[in-house]
Amino acid sequence: MRVFPALFLTLSVLAASCTGARTDFVPQGPEELAGHTVAVAANSSIDLALSKNGDIDLLRIGIGELAVAVRSGRAEFAMMQEIQFDANHLREMGLRKCFTGFMKGNAAVAVRQEDTVLCSRFNAFLREFIASGERDQWIRDWSSNPDSMAVARSRIPASTEGETIVNGITLTYPFIFMKDEQLAGLEIDLMERFCRWGGYRADYQIVDFPALIPALNTGKVDALVSHIQVTPERAKQVLFSEPYFEGSICCFGRDPEAAASPRKGLVQTVRDSVYANLIMEQHWKLLLQGLLVTLEISLFSILLSILLGAGFCFLRMRRSPALSRTVKLFAETVQGIPVLVVLMIMCYVIFAKSHISGTLVAIFSFALFYGARFCELFRSGMLSVGRGQWEAGAALGLSKFQTFRLVALPQAFRRIIPVFKGEIVALIKSTSIVGYVAVMDLTCASNVIRARTFDAFFPLILVSVIYILLSRLSARALNALERKVNSKK
Amino acid sequence: MISVKHLSKVYNNAGKELTVLRDVNCEISKGEVISVIGPSGTGKSTFLRCLNRLEEPSGGQIEIDGVDILDRNADVNRLRRKMGMVFQNFNLFEHLTILDNITLCPQTLLGQSREAAEARALELLQLVGLREKAGSLPGELSGGQKQRAAIARCLAMNPEIILFDEPTSALDPTMVSEVLAVIRHLAGQGMTMAIVSHEMEFVRSVSTRVFFMYDGVIYEEGTPEQIFEHPQRPATVAFINKIRTLEFKLADQGFDLYGMFGRIETFCNKYGLGDKLFLRLQHVVEETLTGIIPFSGPVHLSVDYSEKSYKLVLTFIQEGATESILDKLPEDHLPIQLVRGFCSSLTEPAPGQLVVEL
Description:
heterodimer; A: alpha/beta; eight-stranded mixed beta sheet; two-stranded antiparallel ribbon; 10 strands; about 60% helix; elongated; B: alpha/beta; six-stranded mixed beta sheet; five-stranded antiparallel beta sheet; about 40% helix
């Protein structure tokens, strides 16, 4: 355990040194970006536009990672909505605007293509919203000071009556972000206004940006309000409303002056990181919730996968070769698919139409995947128990089940526990992918914090440390179990 | 106590049928020590394992105390509690200490308290001389100790009969006697036992009755004296005298003499007959086949060597012979002279049958 502080310090120093790199070049237009690394949101309209210039080295990443990429030096510039940063904010982050007005980003609400009623209702609302001049006020308010705006808007009670609209959202400051454990932002505000106007109730589900359209089309969510820009390709898959926001896309780069500002000491850096990522806006609560979700998914997946594995193993060891082969084929098939894909299939294909929670889907997916693994593991354990042991039990008058429970199982367990320990730790760590099906686990919580604070390092290091602790603790618990089994006389 | 009628066992292995037990009939009474002997592969172990249904018999009837144990409704687990079994490979429960190996079943099946079971187990360990090993795991014991522990485990269930399935076959020769001593002790106390064993001296001294199994049946049975001193049937005689046999069938005079010598040499090497004996054997075979046997039809030759009396006997049989071969030849016939010079006796007990003892 003594290695953690050392590891933490090393990475923090690395973090501090990376943000200090200098660049003095300021591009004045998209044509000057040739030969430079530019971060863009994958598959966005900006991505499509810049792809035409083959000389630009595009870094296609998630929309929440753009600022982080520039700060950490992975990209020299990033193309983002201008509204995302005010001047103070930019200085704080060590970024500056290079050029703006490159193109308009028309954001619109997306619904399923057959959902014309909802779409026309929203358009009606939008026209009133624009005509009354409220929309311009709305944009001004949110551009100038999103945080105080979030506090102000959160005081207005949400509409709780009427039909529920589940909105698929992706966290991007200031469109949608977490403020005091609540969702806030320009778009949340927009949706709340629409619901009050139209007599709906809004519900939100955080979805990874690339998974938004599949989530909509499989019925997981009813509408996408996530600063999605209207492109012809997307319009083929979803029905767009009229645009509610015409933001201007701006090129951001690192600010050499901010970067050259006196370097803070290590202790100060760490202290600031802790404040920004944990204390400010009570982000630690988010992490704690994420940790609980991770623990919940891990625990139930482990229990269920052991049951499933034992069940598969039982079927596999029956005399019936057809049954055994079927189970084997099934287990091999499940294991041949990456666990992430299993999770996506479970979420977007098998349970697409049912309204069970993402957490349950995740538990089922991990239970299935690891159950298939445990099946063969348990089987090899059972096969390692010699026939003589079964015969000795039978000859003494033990029933088959008694022999299994008293003789075969303890022996098999002892043989598989070293491998089993590793599998359990692997299972716990693999739960970090549940963010893909909109479950807010520990990893996802850290991503939310990263999207808010644009800190590339601290949240990642923090969750790494938590995962290491989790792995060590579970390994220790299993070690204790192993010792108990081995010393049982 | 146990009555077996027309017991048969056929293994069905991938469509191929292999008959191990054809028709076994016997009675075992209380207090008897039955030894089952016979060559390998004659169904001794299978017979024993059918008695407690570790193998399902294919046919026949087994009654224990008047109850048909092959009945569908028979409670096999209850039956097995009354019949202990000691295995060739001990089969101690590897994850339990010796003490727990012994107390597991009395606690689980006989409802004994832990204290009572342990007290009894320690008594039994004392009996087999392993009291100080109570806390050891099976892996820490020698083969002989493991087998004694396995016997103690059997005894803890208070069986009415113990089946010993080659209890010393997997043991180092130095450890055989410690196990046999324990079995002998039990026999002395009047325990009913059925023992499959290859330890002939032991079988002879400990048994009340001996079953000689051959070809899937109890071929001959009797007291140890009858079986070991006066075996009646040929297979029993061959087995008791540990006779090793090499057989040839020669169609006519064009047989492969040198191929035959090769096989004879292998045979001699295998049983340690020595070069001199081999050369004499070779001469006798050559002279007899080329000079004495008329080859009026196919000839059978068998080479029998007794590992017990170290006697080597050659038997030549001329098929279809109606009159004596030796009588027809003159007394000074050279091959006969030569053969007589190499062997201790040359006789013709029946027409066409020459027996040469070397």
